[in-house]
Specification:
Blueprint (H helix, E strand, L loop, with lengths): L9 E4 L19 E6 L17 E7 L11 E2 L10 E2 L12 E12 L7 E5 L8 E7 L2 H4 L7 H5 L6 E3 L2 H4 L7 H9 L14 E5 L2 E8 L2 E8 L1
Parallel strand pairs: 9-12
Antiparallel strand pairs: 1-2, 1-8, 2-7, 3-6, 3-8, 4-5, 6-7, 10-11, 11-12
Length: 227
């Protein structure tokens, strides 16, 4: 077997219409809520029977914005400034021989009824709106958690969260149920790691808003909200 056709079983509904600003790993912004909506063929409540006993899921999904015919053996991880090359299989780069990704998310709610049901509401997802999901598996704490595991270069290059400042007159334009999630996203510093211009204004498309911000040192200041 040299190739395999995968079925898209679901797509995610999230607050990110674009890639920029999405957390670099799942779980970094736990206040982010998303909805897993199954494709018509897989809208069967029996397929979720027993899932209520689990707290977390593994999502296997497709880097749909980075599908390519060719691949390279080395990539430039953003965590290392975008200049150092490492083997593609030593990274979680989206530029891979097969554009498959995985994310661990928390189950917030399982909705079995409704026109689009069943649906799964999850938190902490790092997926763009509409991302195709090819499989869902329960997270098993006894097997999936390895306390003494080594994190390689990713562990040695961890970054402290930024301090996020939002003036009251700007905060008022952000829906109350989206504020915590937005702050957690901004705390992770969405900029490429090699950017360091304190006067540059960036913009994130999030939950129907264009959130503008700049970063000086360890402080991120939201400068405006456009809708």
């Amino acid at each position: 077997m040299d190739s395999l056709n995968l079925k898209i079983i679901a797509r995610i509904k999230s607050d990110f219409p674009e890639k920029f600003g999405i957390p670099r790993q799942s779980g970094l912004a736990p206040a982010l809520h998303s909805v897993i909506r199954f494709e018509p063929e897989f809208r069967n409540a029996d397929a979720l029977r027993g899932l209520e006993g689990f707290s977390h899921l593994w999502l296997l999904w497709i880097f749909s914005e980075n599908v390519r015919e060719t691949w390279k053996p080395t990539v430039r991880p953003p965590r290392l400034g975008g200049n150092t090359r490492l083997g593609v299989f030593a990274t979680r780069s989206s530029f891979r021989p097969n554009p498959i990704a995985m994310s661990c998310v928390k189950i917030e709610e399982i909705r079995l009824e409704g026109n689009d049901g069943p649906e799964i509401v999850v938190s902490g997802a790092d997926l763009m709106d509409g991302t195709p999901i090819v499989d869902i598996k329960p997270y098993l704490p006894y097997a999936d958690s390895i306390p003494n595991a080594s994190g390689g270069f990713a562990e040695s290059r961890r970054y402290d969260n930024l301090q996020v400042e939002i003036a009251p007159e700007i905060l008022g334009h952000i829906p109350g149920d989206k504020r915590d999630a937005l702050i957690q996203v901004l705390e992770q510093d969405p900029r490429p790691h090699y950017h360091d211009d304190p006067e540059r204004i960036y913009g994130i498309a999030f939950a129907g808003m264009n959130v503008k911000f700049k970063v000086a040192g360890k402080v991120l200041t939201v400068t405006g909200i456009d809708k």
